[in-house]
Amino acid sequence: MTASRRVPVLEIGGTHVTAAVVDTGTWRVLAGAGARCELDAGGPADEVLAAFVDAAVALRPADGSMWGVAIPGPFDYARGVADYHGVAKFDALRGVDLGDVLRRTLTGGRGHVYFVNDAEAFAVGESVAGAAREHHRAVGVTLGTGVGSAFLVDGIAQSSGPGVPEQGRLDLLEVDGRPLEDTISRRAIRERYAELTGMVAGQPDVRDIVARARAGDVDADRAMDERLRALGRVLAPRALDFGASILVVGGSISLAWDVVEGPLLAGMDQASPGWSDSFVVAPAQRTEEAALLGAACHAVRRASEDAGGGHYAGGRP
């Protein structure tokens, strides 16, 4: 058991950055010790970096502190260098040594900043204190701007092996000759709804499409159904091959679980009848906190390894 500590963390998304302090003894985010700043992922580098720092300094960081940062890829997590290109966000950060910027700004140059993929952080957070807590092998998927994923064994992300896509990334897969994110993502759902309705301008966002589906809009229901069934057909065989006992679904789109669950499971049934004898599918239990918890767990694990303390085994309370 690793001693409890309080770890400052950042979760960086496409529209906001959240700063918080995680208590690793209880795996809770400390109330009243956090901040959230809106950001424009397509903005210039100085404005994006300012949003990161503004959120972080609200925690009043101490020199020499250790931070965990959950951030989407493409990103060199070991070096802390951004590698964004062609993903319609953070392009201005390409080549920026974010690790150096945050170390100097937040730790006085004497601390450590550990980066982890945001989808992996989500899955690890659900593993230490959420839906996947009692599961040896778990798959985590986030649905939002894109598709994020992580394949965990005892809370440790796998980059290869049975069922695991290259680098553990479902977004690198193709469906019908097209990237998976062209099939299931915020953009893909909006585009499909526009195709079905003939809408040229003023496309509603996913939350509005979900509301219309709930209200009986046939086109909205079809747009959601087609995209989620396709995802289910991808997920079921991979989760089976991996030997998962649970598939946890998070991200902003998963908040509409009443709309998501049916077509997702139907697609899984189409691809792998009988999959439910092997694993369960569940929405995230710590939707708002999972990535923050995972970032803290990753930082503690990495710090233990750097200190020569060996492998940090999962961080379960």
Task: Give the SSE string.
Answer: EEEEHEEEHEHEEEEEHHHEHEH
The appropriate CATH architecture of the largest domain is 2-Layer Sandwich
Relative strand content = 15-25%
How far the N terminus sits from the C terminus, by CA atoms, comes to: 8 Å
Q: Based on CA inertia axes, which overall geometry fits?
A: globular
CATH topology of the largest domain: Nucleotidyltransferase, domain 5
- How many strands, which pairing sense, and closed or not: the largest β-sheet? 6 strands, mixed
- Counted up, domains total 2
User: What is the CATH first-level class name of the largest domain?
Assistant: Alpha Beta
Number of helices: 8
Mean pLDDT across every amino acid position:
91
State the low-pLDDT regions, or none: 309-317
Strand runs, count: 15
Helix content: 25-40%
Structural class comes to alpha/beta
Q: Cα-atom Rg, whole angstroms?
A: 19 Å
- CATH homologous superfamily caption of the largest domain: ATPase, nucleotide binding domain
Topology:
Layout: E1 6-12, E2 16-23, E3 28-29, E4 35-38, H1 45-57, E5 66-71, E6 75-76, E7 81-82, H2 98-107, E8 112-117, H3 118-129, E9 137-143, E10 147-153, E11 156-157, E12 174-175, E13 178-179, H4 186-197, H5 206-214, H6 218-242, E14 246-250, H7 257-271, E15 280-283, H8 290-306
Parallel strand pairs: 1-5, 5-8, 9-14, 14-15
Antiparallel strand pairs: 1-2, 2-3, 2-4, 6-7, 9-10, 10-11, 12-13
Notable characteristics:
single chain, 317 residues, alpha/beta, Nucleotidyltransferase, domain 5, six-stranded mixed sheet, five-stranded mixed sheet, 8 helices, globular, disordered C terminus
